[in-house]
C-alpha cells in the first residue's frame, strides 16, 4: 500500500465477486489481470494529473 497511489486490486475479492455473478473461473483468470492493469494505469494517471478521481484543479 502506498499513500496516494493505486498499485492493484484485491484479486481475492474480485474473484469472489466474479464467482458470485457466475463468471466462469477461466474467463476471470484471463480477463482480470488485463482489466486490473488498465484500471491501475488510468487511476494512477488521474492521481498524477488531477490529484485524484473527481478532484479538479
Give a short overview.
The protein is built from two helices and no strands. It is mainly α and 57 residues long.
Could you explain the architecture of this structure?
With 57 residues, the protein is mostly helical. The protein has a domain at 11-48. It is built from 2 helices and no strands. The longest helix is centred in the middle third of the chain and has 26 residues, at 25-50. The radius of gyration is 14 Å and the shape is elongated.
User: Tally the helices: what do you get?
Assistant: 2
Quick check: average pLDDT?
83
Judged by helices, strands and strand pairing, the structural class is mainly alpha
Helical residues, percent: 55-70%
- End-to-end Cα distance, whole Å, is 25 Å
Q: Which sheet architecture does the biggest sheet show? A: none
What general form does the structure show?
A: elongated
Order of helices and strands: HH
Rg of Cα set: 14 Å
The tally of beta strands, per DSSP, is 0
Which residue ranges are poorly predicted, with pLDDT under 50 across at least 5 consecutive positions? none
